[in-house]
C-alpha cells in the first residue's frame, strides 16, 4: 500500500474526529441555550468525552497490534455513525452525553492506531516529528471546520432553537464516507508485531513504561498542556457569548480563530523544528502564552458591542486572545514525538495509549475546572487560572530535556 495513501486516510479520520471532539464547546453553549442546563452541568460533557478516551486507551492500547489498526478505526467510525444519527432523533441533553461517550471511546481506537502507524511510516526522529505535526495540524483543520459547520445551523435570533441538531445528519454522512474508504485499504500491519506472547504481558509492559523518568515527566507535561488547551478551547464560545456579549453564531465562528491558529502553528512547527531545538521552541511558546493571557484579558472587561456586530467590528479581545493558539500549537505534537521516537517500534502503541490517557484526564480536568470557576466567578478569572499550569510546564520541560539527553547518551 502506498505510504502517501495511508497518510491521507489517517488524516481523513483525524480531520473528522477533530471536528467531532472539539464540538464540545459549541454543544456546551447550545445545551445551555436549548436544553436550559447550567454551566456546571454542561461542563460534564467534557467528562463524557474524555473519561472514555482514557479508559478505552488504558484497556486496549497494548491489544491493538493484535486486533489491527484498520479494524480498530472501522469499529470507531461505525459507533460514531450511529451516535450522530441518534442526536436529531432524540433531541435531548441525555443524547449529547451518549454522543460524547461514543466519540471518546472511538477516538481512543483512532488515535492509538494513528500514532502507532506514524512510527511505521516515519521511523526517523526528524521525519517522525514532521509527520506528527502535519497530522495534528489536519486535526486542527477539522476543529476549525467544525465551528463553521455548526454555526451555519445555529439560529442566533432564537437561542433555544433545536436547528443546530441538523448538523449531525451531515456528520453521519462523513462518518459513512470514511467507513467506506477504510473498507478498501490495507495497512500492512504485519510490520508491527507484539513484543510478547500474550495480551497480559503486553498490558504489563505498558504499565512498566510509567516507571521511566522520561515517561512520567512527559505524561505530567501532556496532562497540564491539555488542561490548558481544553479549558480555553471548550469555554471560548461561551466566553465570547457571555463575557464579550457576542451573538451565539458569531461567538462560535470567532472561536475558529483559535482553531486556525492551532492549525497554522502545528503545520508550521514541522518546519521550525528542523532548525530549532524543541526545548528552546517550546519554552518560548509557553512564555508567550502567559504574556498573551496577562496582556489581553484586561481588554475583555466592560465590553460594549454594536447592535449590528459582525466580523469587522468585534471587540479587540475577540481578535487577540485566540492568537494564543499559535504559541500553544507546537507543544503537544512536539512532546509526543520526542517520547515516541525515543522508544522501540513495538512499544509505541502502548506509549500512544498512555499519551491518550493523560491527555483525556487533562482535558476533563481543565474543562470542568474552567466551567466551575466560570460559573462561580467570571470568565476572566477562569482563563487567568491557566497561568498556573503554564508555569509548571516550564519546569517540567527542563526535566524532560535532561532525561532525553540521558537517553541519547545511553543509545550512543
Question: Would you spell out the secondary-structure blueprint of this structure?
Answer:
Layout: H1 3-21, H2 24-34, H3 39-42, H4 44-60, H5 64-67, H6 69-90, H7 93-121, H8 125-153, H9 167-183, H10 199-209, H11 213-242, H12 248-254, H13 256-272, H14 278-296, H15 316-320, H16 324-328, H17 331-340, H18 348-376, H19 379-384, H20 387-411
Helix pairs in contact: 1-7, 1-8, 1-9, 2-11, 4-7, 4-18, 6-7, 6-9, 7-18, 8-12, 8-13, 8-17, 10-18, 11-12, 11-17, 11-18, 11-20, 14-20
Characterise this structure.
The chain contains 20 helices and no strands. The chain is mainly α and 412 residues long. It is globular and about 60 Å long. It has helices spanning 3-21, 24-34, 39-42, 44-60, 64-67, 69-90, 93-121, 125-153, 167-183, 199-209, 213-242, 248-254, 256-272, 278-296, 316-320, 324-328, 331-340, 348-376, 379-384, 387-411. Helix 11 packs antiparallel against helix 12. The longest helix has 30 residues, at 213-242.
Q: How is this structure best summarized?
A:
With 412 residues, the chain is an all-alpha fold. It has helices at 3-21, 24-34, 39-42, 44-60, 64-67, 69-90, 93-121, 125-153, 167-183, 199-209, 213-242, 248-254, 256-272, 278-296, 316-320, 324-328, 331-340, 348-376, 379-384, 387-411.
Amino acid at each position: 500500500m502506498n505510504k502517501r495513501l495511508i497518510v491521507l486516510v489517517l488524516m481523513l479520520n483525524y480531520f473528522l474526529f477533530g471536528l467531532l471532539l472539539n464540538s464540545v464547546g459549541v454543544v456546551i453553549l447550545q445545551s445551555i441555550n436549548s436544553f436550559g442546563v447550567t454551566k456546571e452541568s454542561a461542563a460534564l460533557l467534557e467528562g463524557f468525552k474524555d473519561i472514555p478516551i482514557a479508559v478505552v486507551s488504558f484497556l486496549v492500547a497494548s491489544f491493538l497490534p493484535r486486533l489491527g489498526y484498520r479494524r480498530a478505526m472501522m469499529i470507531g467510525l461505525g459507533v460514531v455513525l450511529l451516535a450522530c444519527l441518534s442526536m436529531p432523533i432524540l433531541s435531548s441533553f441525555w443524547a449529547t452525553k451518549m454522543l460524547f461517550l461514543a466519540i471518546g471511546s472511538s477516538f481512543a481506537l483512532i488515535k492509538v492506531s494513528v500514532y502507532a502507524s506514524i512510527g511505521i511510516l516515519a521511523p526517523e526522529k526528524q521525519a517522525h516529528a514532521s509527520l506528527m505535526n502535519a497530522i495534528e495540524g489536519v486535526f486542527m483543520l477539522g476543529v476549525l471546520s467544525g465551528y463553521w459547520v455548526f454555526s451555519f445551523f445555529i439560529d442566533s435570533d432564537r437561542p433555544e432553537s433545536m436547528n443546530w441538531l441538523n448538523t449531525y445528519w451531515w456528520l453521519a454522512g462523513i462518518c459513512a464516507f470514511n467507513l467506506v474508504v477504510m473498507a478498501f485499504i490495507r495497512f500492512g500491519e504485519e510490520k508491527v508485531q507484539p513484543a510478547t506472547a500474550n495480551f497480559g504481558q503486553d498490558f504489563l509492559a505498558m504499565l512498566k513504561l510509567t516507571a521511566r523518568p522520561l515517561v512520567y515527566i512527559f505524561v505530567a507535561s501532556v496532562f497540564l498542556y491539555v488542561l490548558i488547551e481544553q479549558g480555553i478551547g471548550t469555554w471560548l464560545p461561551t466566553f465570547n457569548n457571555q463575557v464579550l456579549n457576542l451573538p451565539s453564531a458569531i461567538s462560535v465562528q470567532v472561536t475558529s480563530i483559535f482553531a486556525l491558529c492551532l492549525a497554522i502553528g502545528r503545520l508550521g512547527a514541522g518546519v521550525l523544528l528542523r532548525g530549532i531545538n524543541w526545548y528552546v521552541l517550546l519554552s518560548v511558546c509557553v512564555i508567550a502564552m502567559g504574556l498573551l493571557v496577562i496582556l489581553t484579558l484586561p481588554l475583555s472587561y466592560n465590553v460594549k458591542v454594536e447592535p449590528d456586530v459582525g466580523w469587522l467590528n468585534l471587540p479587540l479581545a475577540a481578535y487577540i486572545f485566540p492568537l494564543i493558539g499559535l504559541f500553544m500549537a507546537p507543544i503537544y505534537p512536539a512532546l509526543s514525538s520526542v517520547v515516541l521516537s525515543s522508544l522501540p517500534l513495538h512499544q509505541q502503541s502502548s506509549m500512544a495509549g498512555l499519551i491518550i490517557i493523560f491527555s483525556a484526564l487533562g482535558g476533563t480536568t481543565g474543562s470542568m475546572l474552567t466551567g466551575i470557576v466560570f460559573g462561580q466567578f467570571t470568565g476572566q478569572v477562569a482563563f487567568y487560572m491557566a497561568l498556573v499550569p503554564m508555569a509548571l510546564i516550564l519546569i517540567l520541560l527542563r526535566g524532560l530535556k535532561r532525561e532525553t539527553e540521558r537517553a541519547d547518551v545511553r543509545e550512543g
